[in-house]
Amino acid sequence: MPSRQKKVIFCIAGLLSFGCALSVAVAIGTQFWVKGTILCKTGAQLVNATGPELDKFVGEISYGLFHGQRVKQCGLGGRPFQFSFFPDLLEAIPASIHVSVILFSAVVIIFSLVAAAFFMYNAFGNPYETLHGPLGLYLWNFISCSCGCLVMILFASEVKLHRLSEKIANYKEGNFVYKTHSEEFDRSFWIILFCFTVHFLNILLIRVSGIQFPFQESKETDTSTGAADLMY
Known about the structure:
The structure is a single chain. This protein has helices spanning about 5-30, 40-45, 95-125, 135-160, 165-170, 185-210, 215-230, and strands at about 35-40, 60-65, 65-75, 80-85, 180-185. It has one domain (about 5-215): Butyryl-CoA Dehydrogenase, subunit A, domain 3. With about 230 residues, it is of the alpha+beta class.
């Protein structure tokens, strides 16, 4: 591929990686990872609420990685409450998984910035082999892609398997029991999926630019070396 087209591809991939870093950084600080509704089970059972009456006992909840908000509905009107995971909810949530989600999100930001820098370096600089050259481009994007996938898997397991919304709603609730009524991932979670897709596409762009995958290059090098040994 001509060098000008390769520069254009690397510049586009670099801008996409930089955009991913900014998007994930913004997503981490928001509370728009999960939104849903919480049913006050105790209150609904006390009055035998069904149909439209049940709406009086359905509150709302939304949260991110650090803080969130819930609205209690127990038949007496909504009561909003703000909460934070650190240090308030560490006893109630699976803390190891939650901290891992935050750490892997930070890794996505760091290596997205590294990938963006190396794309620009390969476009306008004089890269040499090893991590500054094609191998580095594949490596940084693969790390970002893998960590983005881990963030989604760990957070989804925390929410769905460990029933994170119910644990938040029932934290220090002595008189009422809350149950998840509806739940869905919000836009900040889908930003992680978008960034995962972008880094995967970046790997394809590197291949389209004419750079072989690292394991393909090693095979070709071994073959050529073996032929040279036979000649001599």
